[in-house]
Batch of 2 targets.
Target 1
Amino acid sequence: MSRTKEQRAKYGLYLKGKTYEDVFGIEKAIGIKKKLINAKIGYMKGFQKGHILLGGGFKGKHHTVEAKIKIGKASIGREFTEATRRKISEANKGEKSYCWQGGKSFEPYGLEFNKELKEKIRQRDNHRCQECFRHQDELYSESGKKYKLIVHHIDYNKRNNSETNLISLCRNCHAQTNWTRENWIHYLQLKVITIN
């Protein structure tokens, strides 16, 4: 059963401010923690008791005027030249990057991950990014060219091409999924459940 944009947005509001214990229950949250520890992934910060699913951190809060002045003063003289930026970029490429996972991004996709499957997923998602809900017709690259929604593998396994593991995202939202991956896996799995 396909859900409307309003129903998906309402569910997103329901999740906002909830902890993993609230959504999954204490027993399941503990089970997830044990699996992570057993898989030697480590105890993810996102699964600590009381961690907020969405809208956590500083979101919705504001710095005081004094704090803004301090931050402004501290950043004076920290502007980098283009040459310095290039040096920093080169120094953190490939295996030197803290995001390096042994060349995992170079693994090939499964044969069934083709244009037809991608278009089927985009149609299922009504040609909208399932995170920010922008329509595909509203998406432009920095050079001004239109682009299609990216079909993202929720569990980051390029060979798992089941429809329940795929979701449509714009470039900006897709780029965000590279940080705190375990949190994104569970969050996007819940979104796919609401789509179907």
Target 2
Amino acid sequence: MPILTFAIAYGNGELQWKISDINAERIIKACDEYQADNGRFPDKLDDLVPKYLASVPPAKYCMTGDFKYYSHMLWWNRHDFHRRIYHLNERRWSALD
């Protein structure tokens, strides 16, 4: 039973990370469209709603995990010790921690 519990928990974590990657790509695309239309990136993610996104998606659907956005960087915690960061101006990913 402990092995099955671990497998379910691990599988859910992997699924949540995949969902966060997909949702991040949606936000990045919306930011690029906003920038093309307005000549600048949005000041906050809510500026993308409703024209570019119906709503700002969460980074994860279980536990807490919203995307953060500041100074043209999008990030979220993949887990307690790893943050993925996308730099809109530079069009590149980095990691912290």
